[in-house]
């Protein structure tokens, strides 16, 4: 039996794991519980500590308005979790169960739960968001009887109150000898933009057809429809069954009602081992891109949990991107920000370029709305929204000035596109997608910059990465990102032997980046030492690589780190950690690596909140930041015109080795040892 070792984390909660297993995070603690999402890139399932509990289900890229005069918000799906179990007429609850334990198996993307009910039964169940069936969820259940017991199991579909006109049905389809029971609810989203359909059923994979329990329907209310069965289990016998459901919408299907049934029928009539093995094999393929840390098991678990979330929230071949909260909640409306390109995309570009390409396709598919936005504001080229939804139009609430003035996102998108070409060298892609978008990005910045009397260029009236400074001139990061995007557009043209617009490089060479009299980089033209929300100037050293002089980099680090708001977002410290690592400063790099996420961990698994003082996990932007420290800092990896190269890696003192696998299109391995 493996020894379980408790670890006391910064917030004084315990997680436990076996010393030789860096894939599982287990807990027996239900106080202050924050669940970990099971997700397949289409739906996100958030479990609770209650028996069979599911807090909510989030639907990716499915939006309706949040209010009559408000902007869009990603939909919460119908909740097909929250099974109810009764044993000998008594409902199983948190109050009457004991020996409860949950384990997140990151390798297979499954949450295991077990508990005992009095001296009568032991219950085991696993929750999956099936990667191979990405509109479906699956709960696998085993009840072991310690005494002869009578059980009643109820499964249902709970429709959020904001849905309109829900209609629930229970029908038993038959095709020759096959019996197919389906519970289904169909409803319209709040303002009827979408029709949503959820179908579900019980499955008895190991029970002969003539001995399967009879399903009965309970239509308890318009928003809660249920079916149940009863079963006697003899002493020391086990009873196995499953509950599966599928959610489809008019965002992806013209007939979501029928399609949701078909997905459930597929799961119902597919061999259980085959169904779950396909899910596991797809996750095995994802984990070909992995980060292996020896000597510091806690850091290994933290890093793997971050990477798990990027993989869980992304989906190859989907042309979807990742919101700041992924599919853990409707936070920030489920909109797509710069978080996707600057924070989450770089680790994925290294470790899974297929998901990275889907994120780029999300932007390319919305290029026309971005061009329309630029034209509407009097600019040329394309102007991506600060908050983007399925339409590609601006989705930021009107009261938030970021939606009108935080323009660096357009440069961030362009930079991500060139980085993809640097890694893949795919000229066909560059010709068809990369350059057409980069050209529009560059044309935007040409029209956005203003010529000064001294021949320099200024970018006025923006909000930069530091969102505490509104409507400033020559924000350091905005200008640096524009410079970088303009130069990358010129490089893309040259790679395709297309005549370069001379304005691109000329303006890039002459955009102002202001300095204090002592040579420190100024965050914007009027900056005078105020508190800042997060890294801004420091982004010019990494990832933009505009400031390369080591003395200048160190001066900017020393000056701006104390200016960071301690209540600011998690990823702020990670940029500084990368820079210190590249400067060869292991101590400060590791200090800031831990500072970038440890105060934000929430019990019991370590879900990351946006800031140390907030409670809105999972903040996948922070996951992207901490992973960049490991890959681009400690691992010494650089994205260059020659592809991915390694320069001067270094390890924290407590780490014996770092191995990064599955890097780039050739799936290379990089190893760093003490």
From TrEMBL:
Q: Which InterPro entries match?
A: 6-hairpin_glycosidase_sf, 6hp_glycosidase-like_sf, Gal_mutarotase_sf_dom, GH65_N, Glyco_hydro_65_M, Glyco_hydro_65_N
Note whether tRNA processing occurs among the keywords. no
Glycoside hydrolase family 65 central catalytic domain location is 304-513, 523-596
Indicate yes or no for the key word Hydrolase: yes
**Which biological processes are named by the entry's GO terms?**
carbohydrate metabolic process
| Coiled coil ranges | none
What are the protein's UniProt keywords?
A: Hydrolase, Signal
Q: Where is the Glycoside hydrolase family 65 N-terminal domain?
A: 36-241
What Gene Ontology molecular-function terms does this entry list?
Answer: carbohydrate binding; glycosyltransferase activity; hydrolase activity, hydrolyzing O-glycosyl compounds
Stretch forming the signal peptide: 1-18
What the entry lists under PANTHER family is as follows: GLYCOSYL HYDROLASE-RELATED, PROTEIN-GLUCOSYLGALACTOSYLHYDROXYLYSINE GLUCOSIDASE
The protein depicted here goes by the name Glycosyl hydrolase family 65
Lineage, highest ranks first:
Bacteria, Pseudomonadati, Bacteroidota, Flavobacteriia, Flavobacteriales
């Amino acid at each position: 039996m493996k020894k379980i070792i408790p670890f006391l984390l910064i917030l004084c909660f315990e997680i436990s794991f076996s010393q030789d297993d860096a894939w599982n995070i287990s807990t027996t603690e239900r106080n202050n519980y924050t669940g970990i999402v099971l997700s397949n890139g289409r739906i996100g399932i958030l479990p609770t500590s209650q028996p069979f509990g599911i807090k909510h289900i989030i639907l990716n890229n499915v939006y309706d308005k949040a209010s009559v005069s408000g902007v869009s918000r990603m939909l919460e799906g119908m909740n097909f979790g929250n099974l109810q179990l009764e044993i000998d007429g008594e409902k199983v609850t948190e109050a009457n169960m004991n020996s409860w334990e949950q384990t997140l198996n990151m390798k297979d993307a499954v949450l295991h739960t077990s508990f005992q009910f009095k001296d009568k039964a032991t219950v085991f169940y696993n929750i999956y968001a099936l990667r191979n069936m990405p509109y479906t969820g699956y709960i696998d259940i085993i009840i072991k009887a310690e005494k002869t017991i009578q059980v009643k199991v109820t499964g249902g579909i709970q429709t959020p109150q904001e849905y309109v006109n829900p209609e629930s049905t229970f029908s038993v389809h038959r095709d020759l000898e096959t019996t197919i029971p389906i519970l289904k609810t169909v409803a319209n989203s709040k303002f009827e933009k979408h029709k949503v359909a959820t179908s579900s059923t019980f499955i008895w994979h190991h029970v002969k057809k003539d001995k399967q329990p009879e399903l009965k329907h309970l239509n308890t209310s318009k928003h809660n429809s249920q079916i149940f069965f009863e079963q006697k289990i003899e002493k020391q016998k086990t009873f196995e069954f499953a509950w599966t459901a599928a959610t489809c919408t008019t965002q992806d299907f013209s007939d979501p009602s029928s399609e949701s049934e078909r997905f459930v029928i597929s799961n119902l009539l597919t061999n259980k081992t085959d169904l779950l093995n396909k899910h596991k094999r797809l996750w095995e393929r994802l984990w070909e891109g992995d980060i292996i840390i020896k000597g510091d098991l806690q850091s290994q678990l933290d890093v793997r949990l971050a990477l798990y979330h990027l993989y869980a929230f992304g989906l190859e071949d989907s042309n979807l991107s990742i919101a700041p909260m992924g599919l853990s909640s409707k936070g920030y409306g489920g909109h797509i920000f710069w978080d996707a390109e600057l924070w989450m995309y770089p680790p994925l570009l290294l470790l899974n370029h297929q998901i990275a390409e889907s994120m780029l396709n999300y932007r390319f598919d919305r290029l026309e709305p971005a061009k329309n936005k630029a034209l509407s504001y009097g600019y040329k080229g394309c102007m991506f929204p600060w908050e983007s939804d399925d339409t590609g139009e601006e989705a930021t609430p009107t009261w938030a000035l970021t939606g009108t003035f935080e323009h660096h996102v357009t440069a961030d998108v362009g930079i991500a596109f060139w980085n993809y070409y640097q890694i893949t060298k795919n000229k066909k892609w560059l010709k068809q997608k990369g350059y057409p978008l980069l050209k529009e990005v560059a044309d935007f910045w040409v029209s956005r910059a203003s010529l000064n009397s001294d021949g320099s260029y200024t970018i006025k009236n923006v909000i930069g990465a530091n969102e505490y400074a509104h409507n400033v001139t020559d924000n350091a990061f905005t200008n640096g990102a524009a410079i970088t995007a303009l130069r990358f557009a010129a490089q893309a043209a040259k790679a395709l032997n297309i005549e370069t617009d001379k304005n691109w490089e000329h303006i890039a060479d002459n955009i102002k980046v202001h300095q204090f009299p002592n040579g420190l980089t100024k965050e914007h033209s009027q900056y005078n030492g105020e508190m800042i929300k997060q890294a801004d100037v420091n982004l010019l050293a990494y990832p933009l690589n505009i400031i390369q002089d080591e003395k200048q980099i160190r001066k900017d680090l020393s000056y701006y780190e104390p200016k960071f708001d301690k209540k600011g977002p998690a990823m702020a410290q990670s940029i500084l950690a990368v820079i210190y690592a590249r400067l060869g400063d292991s101590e400060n790099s590791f200090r800031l690596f831990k500072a970038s996420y440890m105060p934000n961990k929430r019990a019991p698994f370590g879900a990351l909140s946006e800031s140390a003082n907030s409670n809105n996990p999972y903040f996948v932007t922070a996951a992207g930041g901490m992973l960049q420290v490991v890959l681009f800092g400690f691992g010494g990896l650089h994205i260059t015109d020659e592809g991915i190269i390694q320069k001067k890696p270094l390890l924290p003192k407590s780490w014996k080795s770092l191995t990064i696998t599955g890097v780039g299109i050739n799936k290379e391995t990089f190893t760093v040892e003490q």
